[in-house]
Amino acid sequence: MASKHAKRDLISLKKEYTSINGKKMRVISIVEPGVSVVLPFVDLRKDTIIIERQYRPALHKYIYELPAGHIDKGETPRQAAIREMQEETGFAPKRIRLMYRAYPTPGSSPTLFYCFLSVGLANGNGRFHKDPDEVIKIERISMKKALSMIKSGRIIDNKTIATILYYEKFIARG
Hints:
single chain, alpha+beta, Nucleoside Triphosphate Pyrophosphohydrolase, seven-stranded mixed beta sheet, two-stranded antiparallel sheet
């Protein structure tokens, strides 16, 4: 997730007290900026997407993910999606639209994820650059292969699974 925020902590814990069912309770929330996720089609007719194979230090391994990243202060979710595409893949979306937004972990965080569909890719004007802690390899795969990778457990990133399945169920099938 490339972002100008990479040099400082993005995530913090918020402790507050509230009343739930008439009882005073301490609630701890994880606070972080929103996230934009992009399902980038190289060619919609050929059903080919770009997916990243990214090393995740917290997991100590590579996983498959869609391009995504935090929304910078003063930036719209759409602007963040375009920036992340350029920074992580070197491509800019020709057309991009919001498919849906969702809370990935509503029990512990108010963070919203904005999931976009990108159709057609243009050269990102040389803006390709990853944060120093990012190790990303770009692959082009068919949607059929992506769905197979989800089913077999090769794709285990929740935002990637949800975005691909949302597209397949509600957009590809009309």
